[in-house]
Amino acid sequence: MKEATINTIVLLGVLALAASCADNEEVVVAETADKGLFDETISHDNLQREYLLYVPESYTGNEPVPLVFSLHGAGGTKESQYGLCQFNLLADREIFILVTPQATSILGNVTFWNQQNDPNRADDVGFIEALIDDVASRYTIDLDRVYLAGSSNGAFMALEITCQLSQKIAATAAVKGYMLPDQINNCNPTTPTAIIQMHGTEDPLVPYGGVSATLQFWAETNQTALQSTVSHLPDTDPDNGNTVVSYLYTNGTNGVEIEHLEVIGGGHDWFGEPGTDYDINASEKAWDFFTRFDSNGLR
Prior knowledge:
Blueprint: H1 3-17, E1 36-44, E2 47-55, E3 65-71, H2 78-85, H3 87-94, E4 97-101, E5 105-106, E6 110-111, H4 124-138, E7 141-151, H5 153-164, E8 171-175, H6 181-185, E9 194-200, H7 211-221, E10 229-232, E11 243-249, E12 258-264, H8 282-290, E13 293-294, E14 297-298
C-alpha cells in the first residue's frame, strides 16, 4: 500500500473516531513535591511543549531507575494515553519514571506526531531528546534504560525516534503502527535497538500488511536471524475471538532481538486497554520485553 494512502487512512480514521485512543481521562495532579503525577511543560524549538510526568511512590532517588515514554495516537492526548495504557501501575510495581508527552495539532485541533521528521513541522525527535535530558537532570535515571512505547501514530513516531536517537534508546514497543517507506529509506541508526511490534490482523486504520517491511528492516539492521522462531501464546479466553502468535528474531548484534506479536482477529486497539478483551496486555508485554535489554544490548 502506498505511503500516502496509509497516512490518509489514519487521518480519516482519526476524524471519524475522534481519536485512536480511549476517551480523555481525568488525571489527578500530585500535591506532594516529589511523587505522583505532574502536568508539566518544557520550552523546545520556540514552542511550549506539554507532558505528564509520573514518579512512583516507590522511587527513592538512591538507585538509578529506567525511564519510559508513552506516546499517544493521532487525535489523542497525553491524558488519554495515560489512562489507556496504565503504565503508571507498572511504574508503581517495577519502579520506573513515566513520561507521557503531548503532540502538537494539525488540521485545527487534531493532534499528530511529526512521524517523518518533516523540518516544516514541530521537532518531535528533539522534543523527546530534550525530555530525556531534562528528566535525567532532575531524577536519578539509568540512561542505559530509556524505553519508548507508542500507540498508532505514536508508534510510527516511536520508531522514527529510534532511528534518529538509537544511541539513547534501549528498546521500543510499537503497537498498531510501523514504519512508512520513506521512514525506512531514511533510517540510519548508529546502534542496535531491540524492537517489539504488536498489531491486529483486522486493524481497519493501519492495515496489517505494512508490518512485514518494518520487521525485515530492523532484522537486517540489527543483524538478527532473518528467520523467526514462531510460537503460539496461550489462548486465555477461547470465546474472545482472538489469538496471538509470536515471531521472534534472535541473535542480533549485542544480543538484541526483534519480536512481532500478531493478534489474529485484533483491531485498532491498545491490546488490554480498558473495555477490550484480548489474550495479551500490550503494556505488560512491552515492559517484559524492555526488561531484557539496555543500551548495550541483551542484559
